[in-house]
Design brief:
- This protein starts with 5 loop residues before the first helix and ends in a 15-residue tail after the last helix.
- A hairpin with a 5-residue loop joins strand 1 and strand 2 (about 130).
- The chain is of the alpha+beta class.
- Helix 7 (about 140-150) runs antiparallel to helix 12 (about 255-270).
- The chain has a four-stranded antiparallel beta sheet with strand order 2-1-3-4.
- The protein is built from twelve helices and four strands, in the order H-H-H-H-H-H-E-E-H-H-E-E-H-H-H-H.
- About 40% of the residues are buried.
- The chain folds into two domains: about 1-60; about 65-270, no CATH class.
- The structure holds zinc ion.
- Zinc ion binds next to helix 9.
């Protein structure tokens, strides 16, 4: 058997994660949809089961850390590799636009599981770090994915802390404030994935990250592309992260942070589907 290269291994892990996330979300459909129903072609199903058995085994017991389209974004970033910085953002947005265009089914206002927005964050000459908006349909799946991103260590803890300040409602917690004002040197810009046009941040992102010139809606906290993009920036560029100062000061009071996390976890467990028997783990492909 051919030995897998590092790039192949990464791509395989992403496909595994995409499948697991899609199969998990199938449980919210009415009636719930099994992997066997989602992958309707018998031959394809057998091939996928052989190649990605863990996705099939764990979709009803372990939570995804993020939505499928977030993995798709990573796949494109992985495919582009080391392009020149100037072209990379434009190329990535164009590739995603080309990818999602044919997915719009006739009669549907939106594309299920497809993000509407990408955000690009960078600082001076740093690389760009990307994020996409939550790509689930229905209230509970999106809410679950945000909780999973906060608790499953997918998001940087500063971003998770800011989101947990509000989650699951739009009301700020009285006992915990992890919001912060983004350092002025960070450039954070979103783009519409349908037409490629720039988008101003919404009111929620203004409240979470101190972004200015906010317009329009106060979307559900943690649903916007800014959260994932900034999280990736903080995880990769330590000097920027060191310049971020959450409202709770140098350290959150442990009991208050624990209480905020418990609040998120309680809500998460409350809205999980009946078919899902959580073993307490977040699915991490490996
Ligand atoms: Zn927003």
């Amino acid at each position: 058997m051919r030995r897998m290269s590092g790039r192949d291994t990464k791509a395989k892990a992403l496909v595994e994660e995409i499948l697991h996330s899609i199969f998990f979300l199938g449980q919210f459909l009415k009636p719930p949809c099994t992997p066997e129903k989602i992958i309707s072609t018998g031959r394809k199903l057998a091939g996928l089961k052989t190649q990605y058995p863990v996705s099939f085994e764990l979709y009803s017991s372990q939570l995804p850390r993020r939505s499928p389209f977030s993995c798709v974004l990573d796949m494109f970033v992985h495919m582009i590799g080391k392009q020149t910085k100037k072209d990379k953002d434009h190329l990535l947005i164009q590739m995603l636009k080309d990818f999602i265009r044919p997915l719009k089914k006739d009669g549907l206002k939106s594309r299920p599981l497809v993000s509407s927005t990408i955000c690009v964050s960078k600082c001076n000459n740093s690389d760009s770090y990307y994020g996409v908006s939550m790509s689930t349909t229905g209230c509970h799946p999106g809410r679950i994915m945000v909780a999973a991103s906060c608790l499953g260590t997918y998001w940087d803890s500063y971003v998770a802390g800011a989101v947990m300040t509000y989650y699951p409602t739009k009301e700020k917690k009285s006992y915990f404030d992890g919001t912060f004002k983004l350092p002025g040197k960070v450039h954070c810009q979103s783009f519409n994935l349908s037409d490629g046009e720039k988008k101003d941040p919404c009111k929620s992102c203004g409240n979470l990250f101190g972004l200015s010139k906010t317009v329009g809606m106060e979307w559900a906290y943690g649903h916007c592309a800014e959260a994932e993009s900034l999280s990736n920036l903080f995880k990769n560029v330590e000097e920027i992260r060191n310049d971020v100062h959450p409202q709770y000061g140098s350290f959150p009071i442990p009991e208050k942070k624990t209480r905020a996390k418990k609040n998120v976890r309680d809500e998460l467990e409350r809205i999980l589907p009946n078919t899902f028997k959580w073993d307490g783990h977040f699915y991490t492909p490996g």
